[in-house]
Amino acid sequence: MTKRLRIALAQMNPHEGELRANAAKIRALRAEAAAAGADLLVTPEFSIAGYPPEDLVLKPAFQAMCDAEIAALAAETADGGPGLIVGGPWLDGGKLYNAAFLLDGGKIVARRAKHELPNYGVFDDKRVFDAGPAPGPVVFRGIRLGLMICEDWWFPAVSETLSESGAEILLSINGSPFEVEKAEARIDLAVARVVETGLPFVFLNQNCGQDELVFDGASFVLNADRKLAVRAPSFAETLILTDWEQPGDVWVCAAQELAKPLSRPAQIYHAMMLGLRDYVEKNRFPGIVLGLSGGIDSAISAAVAADALGPERVRAVMMPSPYTSQESLEDAAECARLLGIHYDTIPIGPAMAAYEAMLAPAFGNRAPDITEENLQSRIRGVTLMALSNKFGNMLLTTGNKSEMSTGYATIYGDMCGGYSVLKDVYKTDVFEVCRWRNANTPAGALGPDGAVMPERVITKPPSAELKPDQKDQDTLPPYEVLDAILNGLVERELSVDDLVAQGFERALILRVWRMLDRAEYKRRQAPPGVKIGQRAFGRDRRYPITNGFTGLIS
Ligand SMILES: Nc1ncnc2c1ncn2[C@@H]1O[C@H](COP(=O)(O)OP(=O)(O)OC[C@H]2O[C@@H]([n+]3cccc(C(=O)O)c3)[C@H](O)[C@@H]2O)[C@@H](O)[C@H]1O
Ligand SMILES: Nc1ncnc2c1ncn2[C@@H]1O[C@H](COP(=O)(O)OP(=O)(O)OP(=O)(O)O)[C@@H](O)[C@H]1O
Ligand SMILES: NC(=O)CC[C@H](N)C(=O)O
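Structure tokens predicted for Glutamine-dependent NAD(+) synthetase:
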């Protein structure tokens, strides 16, 4: 007789450290899976606590509470309903593992420890976990499941061991952070595991924002014939029901309608939305406040916030100085109107005059310079922080990756803030994302349909408006050139010579190199922001501040 199995995959959003709430969510999902006739509910890597737990997992009280929640969930499986796979810490013989637990019939039936511990990029698994032995399959109601924990399946060894020891289905639970175009790369890699083992493959990921990381869901099932049977949407919390049967030797998952892959700007936008939404909600802010200048960075940051939180939770402030153009005043007001967000105007002229008078005796006869420019930015920072304090809204900072790379932002000025959505988005991508958002409404957006900023905001030359007729391009190379050089230096760790060979001017490369190095101290003090690419400032790219390496090898 053909064997059948219904597996429910919980592409869920855990709240890091909120163990009781996570257990309650898993309980509710199991009830939903039971109502849908599922035999097994699978949850992502470290689902009881959220991944990555960082040093929190080293606290004995945390480990004990995770144990208690998992034990309670195990006891509940005595009800004859679906079995359950949860992820969490496992302390055994003085070793601390990142483990998966199979719960069924009222008890913990099996435990498996993560074997491959990622310790590069944003990952520090080796800092807090011990590596488990190469695992064998777990047996669930007579079926041998090849249970793997995220990094375990990124190399061939674990899945090969599992298939050699009789696994029938490869089942991977993940905390796999988003990077642009990673969803497709995961599928390509999973095809390799299917080809090597001849087994079907399940990839289940969490769907949440966790500080700088966004986990994009995008779970999928590949059959042994390498065809995609299931592809869940990215950036959506969802319970996926999969139906399996074993007509011959190999299990086959019934094909479902596949979610459409997202374009590059759509991926970036959705990642920013989920990152900001979870940061604001999970840290319990009523909303956000930001400076709206009429420029493109604050316009798109405001749009992401309105889409993530709802326009009523976004407060924008135009703070004109004597250098603010009429165009900027009109554009900022129009952005706010299109988004339906709160909009205030607070001129900073009086504060500028007060500082000028206060500082005049100390400055003596020194000519005005960048000091006065930065003061404007700092007055705006103080004003926004005052609003944040008074109303409880978090200040959203607006600097993009091109600015963060070059130090083109004022520390304790426009760098004030709690979180950033653009920190890992180069200016050239900002333009693309704005065009995309003006033509599309993202899935799950709470903001308006249609355009969110006037076309002029995208097409006009970027300016900080800190002195008359100032343009970014007076100080920085054109953004297409700057971003191409930064892409080489930051994303691909190229040398000066490599970039010269690509046709860039040596003197310009060296200038950008110096700006990048000098701004490291600013980046260390910058708020966290959503990781978008493979080399985000923060956990991903850790450079020394004090650094004498000039790049001049020859
Ligand atoms: N390694 C280090 N460790 C600790 N502190 C260090 C440091 N290097 C410099 N510093 C300190 O940093 C300070 C200089 O930094 P900071 O005050 O930020 O000023 P600075 O980097 O000199 O100037 C800010 C730049 O950002 C531009 N800007 C400002 C505002 C908005 C925008 C925009 O369009 O978005 C652009 C502005 O036009 C200017 O080019 C100095 O006080 C210096 O002592
Ligand atoms: N007149 C202003 N009113 C309100 N906020 C401002 C104003 N000028 C600057 N800001 C705030 O400071 C940030 C840095 O802005 P600035 O205009 O100096 O450079 P930018 O990188 O071109 O940003 P944007 O594209 O948003 O203008 C802005 O994104 C905004 O949040
Ligand atoms: N949690 C993990 O082990 C993640 C590592 C994996 N290589 C990924 O980026 O998806």
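The chain has two domains: 3-261, 265-471.
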